[in-house]
Amino acid sequence: MKPGSWPSILLVYLYGVLASASLSKLVPLSQVIIRQLDIGPAQFALLLSLITLPPAILGAAVGGLVDRVGPAQALMFSAIAGAIANIAYLFAEHIVAFQLIRLFEGFALVGIFAAAPALIMATTVDRRRIRAMALWATYTPVGFSTGLLLAGAFVATDHWRICFVIHAILFISVASVGLVLPNIEQPVAIFRPHTLVSRLRELVSGYSDSKLVRLVLALGCVVSIGFGTSIVFPTWFSHEHALPIGTVATLLAVANLAMIIGSLLAGALIAKGLRVRTLFAMLAVTGIVSGSSLWFPLTPMFVALALLCLWLATTGAATATVMAVLPTVVRSPQKGASAAGLISQTSALVTFITPPIWLPAVAGNRWTLLIALVIGGWLSSLVLLPVWGERAAPAPLLS
Q1: 107 Cα distance to chain centroid
Q2: DSSP readout, 235-256?
Q3: What is the Rg, in whole angstroms, of the alpha carbon atoms belonging to the chain?
Q4: For residue 323, is it within any domain?
């Protein structure tokens, strides 16, 4: 497969979609899992979060390791690990087993989240790189929707574990096709660090880059409020408008398509030279207005659905903006996985701590707290973004 071609980019993209589906596939199954495993909502919230623990702890280090072994190989091994985890779910009967499998599944995610964008950055240039990274930014909504639909199709049946079988088959399929992914030649120095200290320095090199850290933290703020909204919206909307939670999960999955539109539009605007800072400021204002209105209790149902689509398009565009800027702060194409690993680590960390904050807020009908989280997240991301109005064509420039 030709490096940097759209077939290659799309194949890498599929890895991200299947990995992201792992984050959401348990959400529609919440009631059946709580009932069959005899656990409470707090334990289920912990189960949701556990998959993000390996990326939260090991993201940057795994990214450095991927830089050394090659992203194509890392993608295939990670997909195989994802398949094994889904097969293990078929035999799990107790909450401890589910928790251990969920942790193991997290190791598959950290490899994919580090390797996939690294491979895209290393095999593309100029405007194609911007558009490819904007496309990559949509893997979360597409994958999240995939997980919701995958599990939602079986939530009202006694065969809800079939979703794990299907997910495992999909992972095995991309791992097999992954044999045609392009390999990246790595510098000898990366393979042969002279000391243990230099080896560790390579693995966590992303922490020393202030612009990269700021960019990652800006994305982390958007991820937190975006993921928080996605995990509690089915419960909130179902309660507010007396709809079955399975129906609301399907509505959310369809509405997530707006994130794709927002991401691709942001990538096109950046590629044409729109100032990154200006774009992100407009997105922050739109996100604050739509997000705050979404959680206001008196918002009519159809208005809330329209606001949800606007909110999702805005968060998708913000994520794409950050990912389009990412290649400009990476010191070399061979360091892409280190940067992506740091993003994975930060995103996983905020994803891990988000459910325990958002789920109790919804359970207690504390809509003012939800609005405060939305406003605080957008303002923080805008302040942290290390881009100060430079034009972004053919690639965004940083201060």
Answers
A1: 14
A2: HHHHHHHT--HHHHHHHHHHHT
A3: 20
A4: yes
Nearest CA-CA partner of 32 in 137, 159, 176: 159
Total domain count, the chain: 1
Residue 1 lies in a domain: no
Tell which phi-psi region holds residue 242, choosing left (phi > 0), alpha (psi between -120 and 50) or beta.
Answer: left
What range defines the domain where residue 66 resides?
6-179+197-384
Q: What is the spatial distance between Cα 137 and Cα 313, in angstroms, rounded to a whole number?
A: 12
Tokens, residue 162: 């079939």
Q: Can you give the length of the chain in residues?
A: 399
145 part of a folded domain? yes
Quick one: tokens of 22?
A: 């792992």
Asked whether residue 190 is assigned to any structural domain, the reply reads: no
- Domain with residue 296: its CATH number is 1.20.1250.20
Q: What is the pLDDT of residues 299-346, one digit of tens each?
A: 898 998 999 999 999 999 998 888 888 877 765 555 566 677 777 778
Of 199, 220, 190, 169, give the one whose Cα is nearest residue 21: 169
Token pair, residue 34, equals: 């709580």
- Determine whether 298 is exposed, middle or buried from the number of CB atoms within 10 Å of its CB (0-12, 13-18, 19+): exposed
What global pTM score does this model have?
0.74
| CA dist., res. 129 & res. 125, Å (int) | 5
Task: Assign 3-class secondary structure to 1-15.
Answer: CCCCCHHHHHHHHHH
Burial of 326 (0-12, 13-18, 19+ CB in 10 A): buried
Say if CB 399 and CB 277 are below 8 A apart: no
DSSP string, 289-351: HHHHHHT-TT--HHHHHHHHHHHHHHHHHHHHHHHHHHHHH-SSGGGHHHHHHHHHHHHHHHH
pLDDT tens-digit series, residues 111-140: 898 888 888 888 888 788 888 888 888 888
